[in-house]
């Protein structure tokens, strides 16, 4: 039986490739070259999940100036056509003053599209406004605290998926925190950069479809996240 993740990846990547090919060449069938390319995409992206069935957990160590300042735990679970993601992290460090940051992010995809996501932050014991994204009919309702807005584009790839699915041929990613699409820039083979609206940027390094390292570039410091 083909794992549900492969079916989900097919809808996201391979079917998109086939549709683009047919759009460009409507009088011809899908070529062997296009088929091989789609198959390769599925193998490269889907392979890391096959050995672990329907659930995967990853743990990252957060490092600043050679010191371990915290960890981030990522989990992914698949049930039928549904994909559930969760990220929990805790950072304790000191720049100008002590900083203790706790995060809890969740996302739910179904049939290849985002259904809902929640972003929660606590800084030095103070809870920040929760950021929510909800699919309502054919549009998204985005909420920050009591403020509610609309987002009218389909979301099939978000920041959390960066940890378990390399953005091959994916030009944009939805930020559940900033509640907007961000451009993905390829720096080198299996290395990508995402500029954030606040002026900072992150570099993502992949191996066998899994994110092995993230370098977080801030104004006054740099944090490295390494898979352990």
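Sequence proposed for the structure above (228 residues):
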């Amino acid at each position: 039986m083909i794992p549900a993740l492969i079916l989900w990846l097919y809808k996201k990547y391979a079917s998109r490739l086939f549709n683009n090919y047919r759009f460009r060449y409507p009088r011809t069938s899908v070529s062997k070259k296009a088929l091989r390319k789609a198959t390769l995409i599925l193998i490269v992206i889907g392979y890391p999940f096959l050995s672990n069935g329907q659930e995967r957990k990853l743990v990252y160590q957060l490092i600043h100036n050679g010191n371990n300042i915290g960890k981030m735990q990522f989990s992914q679970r698949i049930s039928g056509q549904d994909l559930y993601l969760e990220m929990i992290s805790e950072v304790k460090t000191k720049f100008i003053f002590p900083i203790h940051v706790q995060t809890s992010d969740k996302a739910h995809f179904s049939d290849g599209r985002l259904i809902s996501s929640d972003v929660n932050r606590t800084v030095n014991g103070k809870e920040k406004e929760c950021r929510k994204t909800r699919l309502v009919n054919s549009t998204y309702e985005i909420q920050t605290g009591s403020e509610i807005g609309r987002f009218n584009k389909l979301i099939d790839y978000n920041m959390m998926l960066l940890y378990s699915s390399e953005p091959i041929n994916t030009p944009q990613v939805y930020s559940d925190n900033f509640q907007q699409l961000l451009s993905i820039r390829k720096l080198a083979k299996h290395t990508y950069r995402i500029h954030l609206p606040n002026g900072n940027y992150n570099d993502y390094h992949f191996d066998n479809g899994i994110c092995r390292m993230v370098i977080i570039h801030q104004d006054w410091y740099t944090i490295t996240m390494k898979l352990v």
